[in-house]
Structure formats: C-alpha cells, structure tokens
Specification:
66% of the residues lie in helices and 4% in strands. The protein is built from 19 helices and three strands. The radius of gyration is 30 Å and the shape is elongated. Strand 2 and strand 3 form a beta hairpin. Among the domains are: 88 residues, no CATH class; 75 residues, Winged helix-like DNA-binding domain superfamily/Winged helix DNA-binding domain (Arc Repressor Mutant, subunit A, Orthogonal Bundle), CATH 1.10.10.10. Strands 1-3-2 form a three-stranded antiparallel β-sheet. By secondary structure, it is mainly alpha-helical. Helix 3 runs parallel beside helix 5, helix 5 runs antiparallel to helix 6 and helix 9 packs antiparallel against helix 10. The longest helix has 37 residues.
C-alpha cells in the first residue's frame, strides 16, 4: 500500500488518515477522531509508532514521523511536552538498526521544537543516548561551545547541566572522540564546587581512568586542580594519577607491585601503562638534560640497549619530545621536551624567555636603525 499524503487538511482528518496508515502496519487504532479524543489518539499513535518501521523505507518512515510532529505542535504546551518525551523515548529505545534515520528524525524533532525551548533539552538528551548506543556522533551537534550556549537558552539547572554533559561525554567516548570527550569531562568536573564535589566522585574516578588509558594523552596536571579530583586525595586512584602527572617509571612499578589487583580492577593494561610512563619519564629527564647517555636511559626505562632506538622513535612520534640518537657517542640528543606540569617555575621560565626575546628584538631593531642611518648618510653624500 502506498504511503498516504498528509496534506493540509483539518487536524482530526489528518490524524484519522495517519491512524488508517498505521493500522495497515498491524496497529488497532480508532479512525474516528474528534476534538475531544484527539490528544488521546495521538498518544496511541505514538505508542504504536514502532510498527511503521516494518517493511517501510527510510524516506517514508521519516515522512510519517514528520507528519506526527506537525500534529503534536497543535496540542497544548502540557500535552506537547508529554508527546515529545514519548516520541523521543520511542526513537531511543528502538533497536540499534537504522540508527542513522532514527538520529535524523530526532534531529528534525529537535529543530521543530526550536533550540531555545526547554523541550529541545529533552530531545537532545535522547539524541545523545542514541548516539552513544549506536556509536554514531557524526549526525548530531556535539560542539561544547554550542552545548554551553543551549544550556543558557534552556535555563538548565545545575543537575540538568551535569546530566547533559555526562550524556555528551558518554557519546563522545563511545565514538572514540577522546580529545573532545576529555574537554567535556573537564567542563563537567569544573562545574562542581567544594560543597558538592563529593557528588562527582564517580565521574572524577572515571575521568582519571579514561585519561590514563588514552594513548594520546600525556599531560594530566590540569586534572589535579579539579575539585572532584581533589576530593579523591588519599585514595589509590589519586595516588596513581599523581604518578602519571609527576612521577617516574620506577614509581609506577612500585605502585603496581603493591596494588596489582587494584590496577587490574580499573581495566588498565599494565604494558600500556609502562609504555606511557616511559614516555613521561623521558619527558621529565629531557627538560633539564639535553644529552641523555644510553646507560641512563636503559636504567630509568628498565629496558635493554636493543630497545632504546625503537623507544626513542615511538616517543618522537608522540610529539612530546624532539630528539635524535647519536650511536657513536651512545646518547640521545634532545632538542625539545614538553613540560609535564606547568606551575610557577614554568611561568617564571616562560617570562624569562619572553623578556630575552624582547631584548633580542630590541637589539635587532637598533641594528636595523643604525644600518638605515648609515645608508641614508651614504646616499646623501
């Protein structure tokens, strides 16, 4: 049977035609629609809307849902809220098949209720849940700046802000967008105060674990300053984070030996932890020492001489360190190393370098002025 055309006819007639169509898919909806039963029948249509997926192509499914949306918007605000929540739930809890069209339909609904209305918050949360479940973030807006803007327009409470940021984080994590998810989690943890930091304990714990497990993240000192992370001081997870922030490989090895079961319980790979700590240890060593003898590298990294070259190549690939190997003198020559922490000492060093650059530029300027004067005098003669 062909899909009916829901043209510009009275709402009760359009809803009646919609009921007739959904009934062809196996529903048993009343087709006599009056103003008195219109809202109740629309609820029943949405409750049975899953049936339209069977044997219907994506374009026709989208057309049906858009027709439902147009009918929903004729209802009173209280009824619209109920219907939008029900529609969103139906699209999210459906099986993972045809996830792309489900997300597109949700996005249509999101745009239909307008971003400045709080109903858009409900729909957006549904979009994030579905994106997380189906590992598909490419079809929905996930930019953190935009979410901040919407949060203000929607006038979200603190709890609602926490809720949407958690959903956004979960979706980005499942979609392997580690850099974006890390920014969202830091944003989330940063919204807590000293008074309610304890409520974010689980989020802080998860943030630390995911950061340690991420092979692309080496700088973690910014986490230490977050209040929910500070709340974990004295616990093993905080001790482990501190090692990754400022400790060396030997510190991690001692911690792992004493807390093997704990490290395993986090789901972290011991081998990957060693690899990351070796890179972090070299970063610390290379800040003050530009020539690192092989023997020192072998000792600190707890590796054989045959492993040094491959290790340095892997470290250089991280772009945390720039270095080359001098095989004749058996040393690693470092030209640059990223600071693992950036505190008062690093700010002072940066200030000194900027001041030195300023002095050097001043000397260059004076030299150019003198040269220009000499050329002008020669020209005048």
């Amino acid at each position: 049977m062909s899909l009916p055309a829901f043209i510009n006819v009275p709402v009760n007639e359009q809803l009646s035609e919609l009921c007739v169509y959904v009934n062809t898919k196996g529903a048993e909806l009343p087709v006599e629609v009056t103003q008195a039963n219109q809202s109740d029948i629309l609820v029943r249509v949405i409750s049975d809307i899953d049936k339209v997926w069977k044997g219907t192509d994506d374009n026709d499914v989208e057309y049906v849902f858009n027709s439902v949306f147009s009918l929903v918007l004729y209802e009173s605000p209280e009824v619209i809220k109920r219907l939008v929540e029900l529609l969103t739930e139906k699209l999210v809890i459906g099986n993972g098949e045809r996830a792309a069209i489900r997300l597109r339909i949700l996005y249509n609904l999101f745009n239909g209720v307008e971003p400045e209305k709080r109903l858009a918050f409900v729909v957006y949360c549904g979009m994030l849940k579905l994106a997380c479940k189906t590992k598909n973030c490419d079809q929905i807006p996930t930019d953190l700046d935009m979410v901040r803007k919407w949060s203000g327009l929607w006038k979200l409470t603190k709890d609602e802000t926490h809720h949407v940021l958690k959903l956004l984080y979960d979706a980005l994590q499942e979609c392997k967008h580690s850099e974006a998810s890390s920014k969202v989690m830091i944003e989330l943890l940063g919204t807590y105060t000293t008074d309610n930091a304890s409520k974010a304990r689980d989020d802080a714990h998860r943030c630390i674990v995911n950061t340690l497990a991420d092979p692309n993240i080496y700088l973690m000192d910014h986490l230490i300053a977050l209040r929910p992370v500070k709340f974990l001081e004295g616990e093993l997870i905080h001790d482990l984070l501190t090692i990754f922030v400022s400790g060396k490989l030997i510190d991690y090895m001692e911690f792992q030996k004493a807390n093997t079961d704990f490290v395993k319980s986090l789901g972290l790979s011991h081998e990957e932890n060693i690899a990351k700590m070796r890179t972090l240890t070299l970063m610390s060593m290379a800040v003050d020492n530009k020539d690192l003898p092989f023997d020192l590298v072998i000792k600190e990294m707890q590796m054989s001489e045959d492993e040094v070259e491959g290790f340095i190549i892997d470290v250089v690939r991280t772009k945390m360190v720039r270095a080359k190997i001098d095989q004749l003198q058996r040393k690693v020559v470092v030209s640059f190393s990223t600071h693992r922490t950036f505190g008062k000492q690093q700010w002072m060093l940066l200030r000194e370098r900027l001041e030195q650059w300023e002095r050097n530029l001043g000397q260059v300027t004076k030299g150019l002025e003198s040269l220009n004067t000499a050329i002008s005098q020669q020209t005048a003669q």
